[in-house]
Amino acid sequence: MITRIQYTGQAETAGTRLVNKQKSASGKMAGAQTVQGKLDGETGKADFSKLLFDAFREQNRTFFGGAANQSAAAGAGGVNASSLWGKQGVSVSDTELDRIFEEASKKYNVPLALLKAVAKAESNFNPNDVSSAGAIGIMQLMPETAKGLGVDNPFDPEQNIMGGAKYLADKLKMYNGDVELALAAYNAGSGNVEKYGGVPPFAETKNYIKKVLSYMES
């Protein structure tokens, strides 16, 4: 099992801010902007903790009106993520995806297998995927995260994959090539990795790492 890679690449960070990505909210949400729920230590749900430890996520969690999902957001007068960028039903061929992944891998010095494994775990390569928390596209970038990475339209497959590769490269550099820690930060946020001195004790994050490594090896 691959747990560490030699990372020597330099992610392009000039003029950008790398922020942690919020995954799907697991707590109950009520109203357009009020988020309820707390971290469940037994089930290891990381989302509420991520909101506490990332200032940007405090901004992100109300980006779509605090709705639990797209339909709820629309019903509460919120914003549909797809309509925000005017992109619905985006399609891309397998050949084109392969080209983008290969270019992103070379540009940011992230192993191709790892990059594709993250994409499969995040969205199963669906460029139209939007999580209940508003994470968008193939690499599931939060809107503010996407902006910080220089992604103008997160529904665009090339921009999304390039942004995700850039973010992942930064995490690999941050953790000296430790793949598990980089994946933990991608899923649960760097704040939680720092807080727990390693992979956070969240079932979601642990399962995420196992899934990505499994995809990577297969």
Helices, strands, pairings?
Blueprint: E1 29-30, E2 34-35, H1 47-53, H2 55-60, H3 70-75, H4 81-85, H5 94-108, H6 112-123, H7 143-148, H8 157-174, H9 179-188, H10 190-196, H11 203-217
Antiparallel strand pairs: 1-2
Helix pairs in contact: 5-8, 6-11, 8-9, 9-10, 9-11
Model description:
The chain is mainly α and 218 residues long. It has one domain (29-217): Lysozyme, CATH 1.10.530. Helix content is 49%, strand content 2%. The chain contains eleven helices and two strands, in the order E-E-H-H-H-H-H-H-H-H-H-H-H. The chain has a two-stranded antiparallel sheet with strand order 1-2. Strand 1 and strand 2 form a beta hairpin.
Cα distance, first to last residue? Answer: 11 Å
The share of residues in helices is 40-55%
Tell me the structural class.
mainly alpha
What is the percentage of strand-forming residues? Answer: under 5%
Give the tally of structural domains: 1
Unreliably modeled segments? 10-86
Strand order of the largest sheet: 1-2
Shape: globular
Strand/helix succession: EEHHHHHHHHHHH
Corresponding CATH architecture? Orthogonal Bundle
- CATH topology annotation: Lysozyme
What's the total number of strands? 2
Assembly type: single chain
CATH class: Mainly Alpha
Q: How would you state the average pLDDT, rounded?
A: 74
The gyration radius over C-alpha positions equals 16 Å
**Count of DSSP H/I helices:** 11
How does the major sheet shape up? Answer: 2 strands, antiparallel
